[in-house]
TrEMBL record:
It comes from Paraphaeosphaeria sporulosa. Residues 1-66, 447-475 are annotated as: Disordered. Keywords: Membrane, Transmembrane, Transmembrane helix. Residues 108-499 form the TECPR1-like DysF domain. It is found in: Membrane. This is Pex24p-domain-containing protein. InterPro entries: Peroxisomal_Membrane_PEX28-32, TECPR1-like_DysF. The lineage of its organism: Eukaryota, Fungi, Dikarya, Ascomycota, Pezizomycotina.
Amino acid sequence: MSDEAADAIVNRDTPIPVVSITSPGDHSRPSSSRTPTDSRHHLSASKLKDKLQSLGDSHEQSESPNRFSDKMFTMLLSSVLPQDIDDDGDTPQVKDRRSRKYVDRPNFSLPQMSSNFRRFNARIGVAFVAQNRAIRLFTWRQPPQTISFLFVYTFVCVNPTLALVLPLACCLFFIMVPAFLARHPPPPTHLPTDLYPLGGPPLAAARTVKPAPELSKDFFRNMRDLQNAMEDFSRGHDAVVSFITPLTNFSNESLSSIIYIILLCTSVMLFICAHLLPWRFIFLAIGYALTILGHPTVQDLLATPENERLFSEKEHDGRSFLINLSKDIELETAPDHREVEIFELQHRPLHDTDGEYESYIFSPTPYAPLSPSRIAGDRPKGTPFFEDVQPPRGWRWSDKKWVLDLLSREWVEERCVTGVEVEIEGERWVTDLHYEELDDIREKEFSMKSGKSGKERTRLKERNVGGAGSDSEREVLRRAWEKGRPSRKGEWRRRRWVRGVERVPVSNGGD
């Protein structure tokens, strides 16, 4: 192992080059006439950093020494990131597994983001060194190393248990041996070997893996490599998505269905006969094929226009073959049909027994006497006109008009509606029944709560169109209904209208 190999494992502590600052009059002075006293115009990295900090804010010099870097990265990130990020927003349609509802992690913060980025960038050099070595290995920059890798890969494929030895061997030869050579450096070639025995005392301090100093050459090298790695990941991600997504997202349902069937059948076959396949030979052939494809000569042969055209044609033929297979698959394209309902509510003042019912609202609920909204005293909700009734989201009308539900007794019994009179002929109104006992109870309760005079109580009681509101009223209404006591029609009546809807199909380009 050489010193160059050992230096590649750790980040180098290369300082920033010295910056020279000269006055305008110094440009006319020849370089040979400069004296050693000109060294006062040279600034070191730390002094330059202090100068930049003082230019930004001179009254905060006692703060953290990384303040300038924090400002720089915070300004950079704030220019490209949105200002408001609500990770816990209500998004019922899409389930985000990265939300804090699933994993409790710190929330986004620009200062924390800039600090973590600087710490990460100072320590990522080892990963980029490994990436560069892998690129050099598989691009045949040094053929002996690539051939040696193929021999090792062959041994592992022939005897897979040797894969357990690889992590230990890498730890020995790429970590332990360089660390030992750092403390016991080999003798120089121009001096006798006996003067530098490897078994003697260490001749150098132990080398440690240290983060790259900020504003150093290694720090900016890591930023360069990180930038290139992000570009490589983006290109690879887009390539994979553009190839796999059209085949698997059911934008073409026939094509995705035939691929689903192929994957399902393949999974079943592998589950049954996977142990019969020669996996050692398969992995050996795949490894050799991928390594040989990385050779520059092979790359030049594959990069010719004729081969690119051939690959494009083969890909097109493969897709055409799958499309032809999918033509035999018949998918159900008829839209889903449902029936929706609306209740026409009419109201009449309770004291006006001879008056006519007037149209009030079209509501999605029947506003029954014992419904929770009626008990709570809420007004019915809906729209005053038929034309304003809209189909549910994602559906459209399949019938031209609303149809009156003639089976009024069925929907009343299905909802267990009590305290009503049902018309089984005519207009099929379902009318509230009002019992005289309820007036006495309401009078007593209203007098105890408000203390109003008789006329005021009567006027306010007529305004109360909420129906039975207390537990005592509900109990009286049940007993009167069960015993068949005499009653008169109440203030509300309703009937049910129905209409057919069908689900709206979404086109390939829709959301």
